[in-house]
Design brief:
GO terms for molecular function: uroporphyrinogen decarboxylase activity. With about 325 residues, the protein is of the alpha/beta class. Helix content is about 40%, strand content about 15%. Helix 8 runs parallel beside helix 9 and helix 12 packs across helix 13.
Amino acid sequence: MLTAKQNLLETIKGGNPDRFVNQYEFMELIVEIPLMGAPTTPGKEGKDIWGVTIRWNEGQPGPFPVHGDEYTVLEDITQWKEIIKMPSVDYPDEAWTAAIEHANSVDRNEKFVTATYFGGVFERLHYLMGMENALMSFYEEPEAMKELIDFITQYELAYAKETIKHIKPDALFHHDDWGTQKSTFLSPEMFAEFIAPAYKKIYGYWKENGVEVVVHHADCYAATLVPSMIDMGIDIWQGCMTTNNVPELVKKYGGKISFMGDLDNGQLDKADWTVEEVAEHVKRACTSSGTLYYIPSMVMGGPESIYPGLYDAVSAEIDKINKR
C-alpha cells in the first residue's frame, strides 16, 4: 500500500494510485510559523502585521477584515508608499521553536511537511483597501497597483526565505481567494496582467528551494483562471467548487494541474447534515472525476468543517469507496 505522500504523487502525475487521496491526508500543515499575526479564534478582534483590523464574529466560518472610515488602512492607492510599511520577518529563533518541532516530528516518507500562507496577494490588496477601492484601482491607477503588488510580493519572498530556512518544507499550502461562487473578481486578462506575474515569482522561489508540491486554496469559481494557475506553477487547486464543473476541468487540464474539492461546504456544512447526504455527494464527486488528477475534498481551506463531525464523515465515505 502506498503512503499518503506516494499516493498523492501517483495521482497528480498520472501514475498508478491505489486509492483516492482522502482530503488533506497527504499534508502536515505547519501552522505555527510566527509571521502572520491575526485572530485565530471566534469572538476575537485584532490587527494583523499589516495594520488591518481583523474580526472573527461568532457563528462565522473565519476571520474577516473590517473596513470603514476608522478602519481602512489605505484609502488612496497613490499614497501607498507613504502609508504601507513592510512587516518584519526578523523573528528570534525561539519564535520558530514550535514550528521546527512540528516539522521535525513528521515522517517525510508518509506526508509532506507543508508550509502555510494565509491571505495572498489579491486578498492583501482588498484587506488593505476594501474590495470596492481595490477593484476600482486596477482600472484607475494600474501602475500604482502594480507597484503595491510588487511590494507585497517582496514580503512574500522574505516570508518564504525565513520559512524555508527554519522548517525546510516539502510542500506549500497557500491561500488567496479569487472569486465568488459564480465568477472571478478579475477578468482572466486582468488577472494574467496583474496577479499571475507575482505568483510566478513567489511559487518559483518556493520550488527553487525544495518545495515539490504547491497547493493553492481558492474556494470559489476560478475555472477561467486555470491557464494562469498552470503558468504560475500551481500543482493542485484546492477549493474548486462544483460551479467550476470539476470533471470537465480534469478532462481538459489533467496532467498539467490537479483539482482538490468538488464537495461544497455551502451544500454540506450545515447543522442538519446527514451521513446519507454526505455519501451521495462523495459518490457523485468520485464517480465523476476518477482517481487521476482529482482529490475528493471539502472546499474549505483546511482539514475541518464549521459543523462538528462533517469533515470526518466525508473522510469516512471516501474510505468506504476506497475499500470497495
